[in-house]
Design a protein that fits this description.
single chain
Length: 105
């Protein structure tokens, strides 16, 4: 039986679709095992944050491609908003407020 890949700091469960990608590609798994728990946390949050199935599928594919190339964090990702060990930065607060206003909430 294969050992489950490690998870992040906030997200303590690996999404099944991401786990499948990690276990089928040795290069992806090697990068995953080498990155920090905070970096793994950002990949997990980035995948889980997708609102549409199509977006999630694209992100899983992109995660496989980028992790196989050794990319350590998702590009252009503001970071996991679920972290409670630090305050949300002013720039992230601005992005979130713009998104909230755009959605009319």
């Amino acid at each position: 039986m294969k050992q489950a890949p490690p998870v992040g700091t906030i997200h303590d469960k690996l999404p099944k679709d991401l786990e499948v990608v990690l276990l089928r590609n040795k290069a992806v798994l090697a990068t995953w095992n080498d990155i920090t728990p905070l970096a793994r946390n950002e990949w997990i949050c980035w995948v889980e944050n997708a609102k549409l199935n199509e977006t999630r599928t694209r992100r899983i594919k992109r995660a496989e491609e980028e992790l196989s190339e050794g990319t350590r964090r998702p590009c252009c990702w503001m970071g996991c908003i679920h972290r409670t060990d630090k305050d949300v930065s002013p720039s992230v607060q601005w992005v979130l407020s713009k998104d909230k206003a755009r959605r009319g909430k």
